[in-house]
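Example 9 (inverse folding). The structure is encoded as follows.
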């Protein structure tokens, strides 16, 4: 039986400068990553792009990789998908999937 793992690697451009929040022992950087691919339809090529939400957690002494998280930087992210659910003030349930980075490569 195959073992299921929720891991991936994706390369794209940082869409916005990271928003960094520091806590007592760890910090989190949240940013968007623009990813794209070429789709071929007959003789025509079309670029399809999407923005993914990424968060990267690091111990406070290991946040040097956050320096790479500036708009336009080419970056490879290794990580896993994390589903989130919440209810807004009007009682509407919301869902999204974010990427949690375990490793960043410039």
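The amino acid assigned to each position is listed next.
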């Amino acid at each position: 039986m195959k073992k299921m793992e929720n891991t991936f690697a994706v390369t794209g451009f940082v869409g916005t400068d990271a928003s960094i929040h520091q806590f007592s022992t760890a910090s989190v950087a949240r940013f968007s990553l623009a990813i794209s691919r070429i789709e071929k339809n007959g003789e025509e090529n079309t670029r399809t792009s999407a923005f993914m939400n990424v968060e990267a957690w690091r111990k406070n002494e290991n946040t040097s990789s956050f320096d790479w998280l500036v708009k336009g930087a080419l970056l490879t992210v290794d990580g896993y998908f994390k589903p989130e659910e919440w209810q807004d003030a009007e009682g509407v349930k919301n869902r999204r999937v974010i990427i949690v980075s375990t490793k960043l490569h410039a």
